[in-house]
Amino acid sequence: MNFKKIFLSSLAVLAIGSTISCKSKKEEKQSENKKKPNVVVIYLDDLGYGDVSAYGGQGLETPNIDKLAAGGIQFTNGYASSATCTPSRYALLTGVYPWKNKDARILPGTAPLLISTTQQTLPKMFKAQGYQTGIVGKWHLGLGDGHTDWNKHISPGPNEVGFESSYIMAATQDRVPTVYIENGDVVGLDPNDPIEINYKENFEGQPTGVDNPELLKMMWHHGHNSSIVNGIPRIGYMKGGEAAKWKDEDMADHFLAKAKTYVKEHKKNPFFLYYAMQQPHVPRTPHSRFVGKSGLGARGDVILEADWVIGEFIKTLEEEGILENTLIVFSSDNGPVLNDGYNDGADKTLDKHDPKGELRGGKYSLYEAGTRVPFITYWKGHIEPKVSDALVCQMDLLASLATLVGTEENTTDSKDLLDVFLGKSDKGRESLVIEANTKTALRKGDWIMIPPYKGPKVADQVNIELGNDDEFQLYNLKQDIGQTHNLAKEQPKVLKEMLASFEAIRGKNYSKVQKLELK
Ligand code: NG6
Ligand code: CA
């Protein structure tokens, strides 16, 4: 026997063997990955607790959202972290309380990226587990370093905080720049017509909402009187970029087409898609198919449009054969507002419809309607449908979805409530600090405590009760969902305990700064 020969041939066998086992391991991993559910977060903008018929909303039918509610877990105590957009989106994507970041406030279109590129995020968590990650829709978390040249590649942005593909509007529909941005580049930009943006002063000779009311198809009520795009006056000044400007009435169809394409192109392997729709935020610009459909004016019409879009999107998941392997989370970034700066008749055409439902307040408010929003988890064939009164927050999705995809997140603020989101438990959070314009309040059990805050009781222009009061406010939400009876004086012991729990989360220093003291 030639030992050398035997040695070499056994080496060859070993080598072939290890290639085979390597390959099969890879295949194993791939097939394991195939079984992992896709996750889609459908996130509306300013949709109220009473805007969805499944939530008791009157005078408006939202059949497609209702289907999600009827076939999934419909949360009645589901919260955005905040009563405005930017902080809520920050909490959703980072799992961190937004009041821990002093810049997490409504951002202008020129603001720098609010999320640090070193911070953990929902899409980064998914990506690390082999997921494909994408965003379609509203961003409003800042872009670049704050000195963005919109004619060059814009970075950092969603692609630098975990989204492998992004198709977004930078801020809001009422703020410039009014263009779509795909993976950091303005879509359809003509280099001979560069975009200039300024939030302080106008560009010479450019018409504005204040000076040129004759050019407007939608009249402004407060703010929103700078540059005019498509006959709609906006917040901020913009010059150039004509070919790239979006058509407001087509935005819903446009984003829907992008979301559908994303699903079709990524369905072979697990994906996380954040679909951030623009409705019913101002300016409310329903496609002509929906104009007049609700009988409640433009706000009702864009809610019907959004509901239709959701139906179409779910149809796509079904047609592509992945609905049963997709967990859908549906929610809204903050509560409702009627007149948010345009005379679009939203406050005149309500009939029986009350966007805040039985709740008090609205967008911008520390009362319930500011942050308590429609919140649904739906996973066909995997979730036993029910209504859950567990206390949950969008901020909890990071820790919870990490568990879903087989990893663990070391988080303080984001709680792992996967069992609650999948309907296996009703044990939600013990407590939650909610936020409105950097002011905070504590929800714990059935109670909510709103510390005394200076400021107007009712926001001037939008006509919404903000929650400011000279006294502590304490409500039992189980008995008094409309927050009509302040129990702070009748229940001093509960109030004391609530303040202690609040301070345990917010820190004693906050109380000191706010001069929160029990008499
Ligand atoms: C406010 C705007 C409001 C809306 C909001 C942001 C004015 C007077 N009001 O400053 O119209 O754009 O910001 O809404 O400009 S959010 O849902 O994105 O937080
Ligand atoms: Ca919003």
Give a description of the structure.
- With 519 residues, this protein is α/β, with parallel strands linked by helices.
- The protein folds into 3 domains: 36-191 and 245-431, 3-Layer(aba) Sandwich (Alkaline Phosphatase, subunit A), CATH 3.40.720; 196-239, no CATH class; 434-506, Arylsulfatase, C-terminal domain.
- Helix content is 26%, strand content 17%.
- The chain is built from 11 helices and 20 strands.
- The protein has helices at 3-35, 63-71, 85-94, 122-128, 251-266, 297-319, 368-371, 397-404, 418-421, 492-506, 508-514; strands at 38-44, 73-79, 132-138, 165-169, 180-182, 185-186, 196-198, 228-229, 232-233, 237-239, 271-276, 326-332, 375-378, 386-393, 431-436, 439-444, 447-450, 458-459, 464-465, 473-476.
- Strands 6-5-4-3-11-1-12-13-2-14 form a 10-stranded mixed sheet, with helices on both faces.
- β5 and β6 form a beta hairpin.
- α5 (251-266) packs parallel to α6 (297-319).
- The radius of gyration is 25 Å and the shape is globular.
- The N and C termini lie far apart (98 Å).
- The relative contact order is 0.16.
- Bound molecules: 2-acetamido-2-deoxy-6-O-sulfo-beta-D-galactopyranose and calcium ion.
Computed structural class? alpha/beta
Mean of residue pLDDT?
94
Separation of termini?
A: 98 Å
At CATH level 3, the topology of the largest domain is: Alkaline Phosphatase, subunit A
CATH architecture of the largest domain: 3-Layer(aba) Sandwich
Low-confidence stretches: 11-20
Sheet with the most strands: spatial strand order: 6-5-4-3-11-1-12-13-2-14
Output the number of helix runs: 11
Structural domain tally: 3
